[in-house]
Amino acid sequence: RDEMVRIRVSTPWALVIALCVGIFIYRGASAHPRTSRRLRLSLLAHNMLKGSHPDSYPLKLTATKVVNEAVEFETEHLMKVLGRIDYHVLLEAVRAVGLPSELLPSELPPRIDPDRDLPLLQKLHRALYEVRVESGELHCPVTGERYPIRNFIPDLLRKTAAFDKPWKQMQEEGDQDYLRTVR
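Below the sequence we write its predicted structure tokens.
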């Protein structure tokens, strides 16, 4: 049985405020999916992720479930983002999620004109923003750690027990595997 919260209302304004808060809570609970759209793992976010080791970029993506979500196309924003991404990592991620390899060219043109290259920009937008990884795994090429992706969110916390040991204890025991991964 659902329990009801009773609020004692002393003025009409308090009643209006209580109703507005109740409607906001009700709509908020039903309108938003389990994970906010902004937090869902896109290929743009994957392109910028790295593991705990300094040389762990890029993380290898293995996707088991991929979802396409419509996102508004903004040319100016996309042009700014293109200067910050590693295009070859994006191509690997496109292959990992199962998109056709013909979707994107093997190399980006040196200069992209928003008017002339609109079809290319639309394809880049689709790959970077609209493709979301719901479940899968990220793999660190240096440490070998695997980070699961569940409900669109990658769990980047370390799971290895060796990383829980204090640094001084590692040096005393001479744990070379750990010391190699932190340097």
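Confidence is low (pLDDT under 50) at residues 1-11, 18-35.
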